[in-house]
């Protein structure tokens, strides 16, 4: 869609996946100050848009700090009992929009199907046996899964 993507996650496996999927830059929140790093990668201006898919609250609290003036923060992830907050003065003066997005409309669905038909969607996944489900849940709790798992229920 012409956007320049900067991915934020933690770990080398996730970095490799994000770069392979088209991100130009990667910020490792475990090793870097996210706000300063995003500012550095965007020439001090900040991101045009921030799409939050996080499973914890902290990224929701940081997003407006590295979003540029007239930028948009879109909340998609649903961390349990998390809140989003932003400094009112800075958000108003910089005219930042904060939105939630839960489901798309008919046009969004048609566009997604068209992207899939044209081979533009690459969703990394790993196959695992149903007997490995407990191990997968442990990896999820550790934040150690890059991509998704598909369970083979034929065992």
From TrEMBL:
Where does the record place the Alcohol dehydrogenase-like C-terminal domain? Answer: 1-116
Pfam families, per this entry?
ADH_zinc_N (PF00107)
- Keyword Iron found: no
> Known SUPFAM superfamilies for this protein?
NAD(P)-binding Rossmann-fold domains
GO MF assignments: alcohol dehydrogenase (NAD+) activity
Record's superkingdom?
Eukaryota
InterPro entries per the record?
A: ADH-like_C, NAD(P)-bd_dom_sf
- E.C. number: 1.1.1.1
Keywords, in A-Z order = Metal-binding, NAD, Oxidoreductase, Zinc
Its recorded name reads: Alcohol dehydrogenase
Origin species, per record, is Discina gigas
């Amino acid at each position: 869609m012409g956007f320049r993507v900067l991915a934020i996650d933690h770990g080398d496996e996730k970095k490799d996946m994000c770069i392979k999927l088209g991100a130009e830059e990667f910020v490792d929140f475990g090793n870097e100050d996210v706000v300063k790093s995003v500012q550095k990668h965007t020439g001090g201006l900040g991101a045009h848009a921030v799409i939050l898919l996080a499973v914890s609250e902290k990224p929701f609290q940081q997003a407006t700090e590295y979003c540029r003036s007239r930028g948009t923060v879109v909340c998609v992830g649903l961390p349990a009992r998390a809140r989003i907050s932003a400094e009112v003065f800075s958000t108003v003066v910089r005219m930042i929009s904060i939105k939630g997005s839960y489901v798309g409309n008919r046009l969004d669905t048609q566009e997604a199907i068209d992207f899939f038909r044209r081979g533009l969607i690459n969703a990394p996944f790993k196959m695992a046996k149903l007997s490995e489900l407990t191990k997968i849940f442990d990896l999820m709790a550790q934040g150690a899964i890059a991509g998704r798992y598909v369970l083979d229920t034929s065992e």
